[in-house]
Amino acid sequence: MDSSRRNFIKNSALVVAGAAIMPNALFAESKKLTRLGIQLYSVRDAMGKDPMGTLKKLSAGEVKHVEHANYINRKFYGYSAKEFKKILNDLGMLMPSGHTVMTAKDWDASKNDFTDKWKYTVEDAAEVGQRYVISPWLDESLRTDMDGLKRFMEQFNKCGELCKSHGMKFGYHNHDFEFSTRVGDSNLFDYILKNTDPELVVQQLDTGNMAGVPGGDPLELLAKYPGRFELMHVKDEIKATGNGEMGHGYESTIIGQGIMPMKEILKTARKTGGTSQFIIEQESYQGKDPVDCVIIDLQTMKKWGY
Length: 306
Hints:
Blueprint: H1 3-21, H2 24-31, E1 35-39, H3 44-49, H4 51-60, E2 65-68, E3 71-72, E4 75-76, H5 81-90, E5 94-99, E6 107-108, E7 113-114, H6 116-128, E8 132-135, H7 146-165, E9 169-173, H8 177-180, E10 182-183, E11 186-187, H9 188-194, E12 201-206, H10 218-224, E13 231-234, E14 236-239, E15 250-253, H11 262-271, E16 277-280, H12 290-303
Parallel strand pairs: 1-2, 1-16, 2-5, 5-8, 8-9, 9-12, 12-13, 13-16
Antiparallel strand pairs: 3-4, 6-7, 10-11, 14-15
Helix pairs in contact: 5-6, 10-11
């Protein structure tokens, strides 16, 4: 055995030995890839009219990661997975996550398997380069149907397995009804987290959707469920002149200009929430251009160290 080979084996053994005595948490932390991105629903009108031009503006504004909210008939904003991935790559952008609603109808009980439609959804997500498939809704008919809800949580776990087979993770994104809907002695949000496998179903916590809803405090939830929120929709809020976005009198605004304790929420999310994917979303603009707003949001987050 030549000396270079012996040195390689010796050095490798030292690395292994060192790994055995180093804290697991250190390795877990090093594996986390922190991403800062934009949810394209923030610029939905512009994406509807001119997706290519809008993505170019976002790229010029130093946006590197986006999250989609438009997958229809196997197309992302009118483009196939392969086409949209090339568009993003040409602009130096990636799309690690996306929103596509999964319903109970996406499970075929007669075959004990997902429908072809949902399988294509997951396959296209993998093709476009996603790492997370996020379902952002739960049908109203299931919210108080305990048998149906239990089956649907099992479907969540099975989708986690399906996504895992494609090198991705499945997740759920909250709105407001999860906190206002009672399930037994608790609420729907608690039920979802207690009846899904953390290894198979991640959570994307929306900091703004729960504004004004009892039980929907982001800091309390981060403390109650440490490590459960791998993704976060970063959204600040102000009092609305009308009902607001969720019907509770609040609407989103530029990050740092609202009433939410954003810096504390973000610090807690990073420290104890297990959050590594920070996705900016702004749905109301107070007369400003949506593209300009999200670029300001991005610059604010960068100044805060994200």
